[in-house]
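pasting for ref
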Amino acid sequence: MVGPVSARQILHVDMDAFYASVEQRDDPALRGKPVIVGGPSLRGVVTAASYEARPFGVRSAMSMAEALRRCPQAIVVAPSFRKYVGASRAVFAIFRRYTPLVEGLSLDEAFLDVTASRSLFGDGETIARRIKDEIRAEVQLTASAGVASSKFVAKIASDLRKPDGLVVVPADDVAGFLAPLPIERMWGMGQKSAPHAHAAGFHTLGDLARATDAQLERAFGNHGPSMGRLARGEDTREVEPERDAQSIGAEETFERDLVRREDLERALLGQSVRVAQRLFGEGLSARAISVKIKYADFVVKTRAMQLAEPVSDTDAIFRAARELLARFDLGKKGVRLTGVAMSKLGPLGEVVTLFPDARLGRGNKLEAAQAALREKFGETSVTRAALLDTPRRRMGLGEARDELRESEHDDRERLTPTRVPRRR
């Protein structure tokens, strides 16, 4: 049982520019260079940017075209999620040497409760330094860490001195630490909501801490009072150890709102590919699907349905996603985000009907063939023709590559081998 909040020692460890750093680690030619991880098309989106690219204003979720306009000398690398998962597993294994209380937030960040570990390994700062040193020595990557008595404060602290930072916030100085920080440090306070907060007179976390619940509710709705409590350092949430995944999903925020149904379907296809890769790679199938849409006015709608059989392949997921898309009121509304998520997970190959759909068997074989090709030739060795409507480019040089042609096979898209330009 965790003791009083003041006695707790919570770490938030966050890998520095994780995807880009893995690419730089594995290719010495990329070290010290501005690197962008993302889709090879100019219509692609930035997944991650190295610290050398960030001074140019390149950031994740930015369109590739905008990123290259800001940093034309950047080298673009297609994501290799198998490498990232491998690095993540190595990092999390280091976390678990110090505590079983590890709550993963993503592949590259986690909360750790080391309260009960201090008698073995030292205080939170000592443990954080040891973790950072071991990540550097064993995984050849750097991490930043925050140490505090709560999750909220530890997360803020880990972000203050990146890269390779370590910030410790004593339990008796939480209010003084938080008060001068800009309002943008509050969880959920993004580029769209921050101007609203400033217009309402809230510029720092101290402003939130001093406000009454009524003032905060008027300004921010039902979430306002909880924001005030966090700003005062009142956060008793426990670190929740990892449990089996309840769902696997992928979503994307677009640089420009999408209106045409064909563009939305193309986005859902890309997300279906990513979800299928994760399902198949983890030996899972799913019996339920949901599709999420965020409209241009930030209204979020979700549609979901049960599937007759567990699925794990792109074609089956995409068929269901398109069916759900038809249930949304699109009209001429712009869409800023779409997402696909699979739930009710079970082992791959699980049979729950006497008359299974033959297409699912073909789809699983197709997914297995893709996995084998990616294993042998790399993550970008195969893709779907519908996702390649622009020439592939060596982005760092601005040279257009041969345009890839679409082709069909039976009633499905053929997997189109793609040539990945070698880095110089």
